[in-house]
Amino acid sequence: MTPDRPLAANIRALVIGEALIDIVRRPGAEPVSHAGGSPMNVAYGLGRLGVPTTLVTQIGEDAFGEIIATHLRTAGVDLLPGSVTAGATSSATATLDATGAANYDFDLSWELPELALPEPCTLMHTGSIGAILEPGARTVLSAFTAAPAGTLLSFDPNVRPGIMGSRDDVVRAVERLSAAAHVVKMSDEDAAWLYPGRSLDQIARDYVAAGVALFAVTRGGEGALLRAGGATTELAAHPVTVVDTIGAGDSFMSGLLYAILVGEATEAILQNELAASDLGRLGQTALASAAITVSRAGANPPTTVELTDR
């Protein structure tokens, strides 16, 4: 599923956003706690795929924070100094229904100091609550707009309406960050909440017309839509028995970014010259990553070997 070439030696990813503890409640079972948060999941997914990755986040110097730090270390992901604070680690309660779909309630605060970012940084990704919730969102936007030329910028809104604020405010924040990004991914649920009544195809066209080089929409069991330039590709989901959907979109995101990096598509995206012929390869790798994740419990993204064997 992945190209037969290694990652370049100088590649490094930086992910900015929330890391928290997911408290998962399944019907008829005791609650289970594990590390979560969309940006944290993307960082972990990149690390599992062999991409040297640093996470910029806000966790407490407490038991929950140590769970997150240990989890990240198992994938080789570094925490940027200053990410561990004196406050408590945030949490989210994910309640699963009979199909394995999750609804979330959050206990979260988000504030970051101005960042001294490591160099080199090939890829910078952000998303979800950490990209929208103030006051930390201002630091995230500043990091994006001040990124050195040649840094691939990626954004996943991963909308959480219960904590992000009004739709109008969220739309403005999403579009502001997207204007700085080269790659934007959202789910069909994100798209429907942000732009009610607008088709996925029209949303994709609008974002690409606004300057996004690669726009992707995940559609759950219906697969994904990708658009670059004047070309749109629709791909079917990989057949899989779903255990739960926790982390599925984040695994799609890390798989997509990995496919860009390993397939040497970075320069084409930076120049907004991605070929239509590349969309299928990138999308298939991302969908394979998501399929592996939903086939097992929790946000458990694939290793490089698993993705290659898919």
Automatic annotation (TrEMBL):
UniProt domain Carbohydrate kinase PfkB: residue ranges: 13-302
Pfam families with a match to the protein in the record: PfkB
Matching InterPro entries, A to Z? Answer: Carboh/pur_kinase_PfkB_CS (IPR002173), PfkB_Carbo_kinase (IPR050306), PfkB_dom (IPR011611), Ribokinase-like (IPR029056)
The family database entries (Gene3D superfamilies) matched by this protein are listed as:
3.40.1190.20
MF terms (GO), sorted A to Z: ATP binding; kinase activity
Sorted keywords for this record are: ATP-binding, Kinase, Nucleotide-binding, Transferase
- The yes or no answer to whether the keyword Nucleotide-binding is present is yes
Read off the PROSITE patterns from this record.
PFKB_KINASES_1, PFKB_KINASES_2
Q: Tell me which family the UniProt entry assigns to this protein.
A: Belongs to the carbohydrate kinase PfkB family.
Stated name of the protein:
Carbohydrate kinase
User: What organism does the record attribute this protein to?
Assistant: Cryobacterium arcticum
